[in-house]
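Field reference: sequence -> structure
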Amino acid sequence: MEIKWRHRQDRFTGRLAGSLLALALTAGLVAAAPGLDGAARAVNLEEECTLKVAPVDPSGSNQEMAADLAGAAVTVDLYKVADAQPVSGYDAYTYKFLEGYQELEDIYSSSPDNADWKKMAQKAAGYVKENQAAALEPVKSAAISGGYAQFGGLKSGLYLLIARGTDIKDYWTTVKQQGEEGDAEPAESIATLARSVKYEYTYSPEMISLPGKEGNTTAGSGEWLYHMEASLKPEQSLRYGSLEIVKTLRSYETKDPATFVFQVKGVLGEETVFDDMVSLTFTAEDGPGQKSVVLEDRIPVGAVVTVTEVYSGGIYDQISITPDPVTIEANNIVSVAFTNDYNETNRGGGSVTNRFNQSETGWHLQKVYDDGRVEEQGNE
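Structure field:
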């Protein structure tokens, strides 16, 4: 039997035709469907659906990202938000929102656009986040394997899709998004995290309706699709790790503070990704011994870092450095150790370390002296 969509201009029909998106209910979800042949058949809401979800669309410019995510541990959770209900007289269906998600009806009932679907996904994700401690579980979870998380036996309806790092316990985060015109601050929205060795991926919650039709709709002509494939669109950013510089001073001349200045340079591939100066100062109270400074979460993971001692006051000779260079790791603090000793010259010395900090009014210079004094300079 051929099903033809009847284009009536009432509000309810317009909502079905214009906003019941099946595959791409929010901007972050990309879906693909096979070509269709033959006459369309009426929707069967009793037929079980399947879904395959990729962590990123592997086509085009995303190929490098897809290759990186292939080595990451990503799990996809599905939460049932609404049951599908047939619409009498039409080859389409609407939703009956489940307990905990009824507030979404207020947004859905006003002919939602793409921005409204994002709001619905955010509200649904907020409910999930707040109630996980109360044992709120997804209806299904699947790890990405062979490029997809695969789900079977899904009943018709609307689902919330959460992608997360399998090995990340606290995977919830927030991201800033452009708010409405005139807003003082960018809006914050709920997101989740996943990580590969070098990159962090941020996923926005998505919503998907099953079954769907070609053209990303649950209304209109065309064959109903009960076996769907979808690809997510995460944001990618470099992960950062920490470097510790350890200084051992074998003996100390008490006339002046002993200041040591290091140049830290990190290279990732052929690009210099970090270049800064760091200082360590020993005072009479410290005497000989060991001190350290940690550059915490400042250097991209995988960067090869060379630390060079560029100043030691002229009276302390460098005895050793171990090791040089080093590679920044994701979950460990990588250390470089220097040992110096007094060379009996008694020439003395000192230093000032310049630091540049950015604020809303521009760049500011800080001068940090050996004795710990900090002098603020004006805009640069």
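Note: Confidence is low (pLDDT under 50) at residues 1-24, 33-38.
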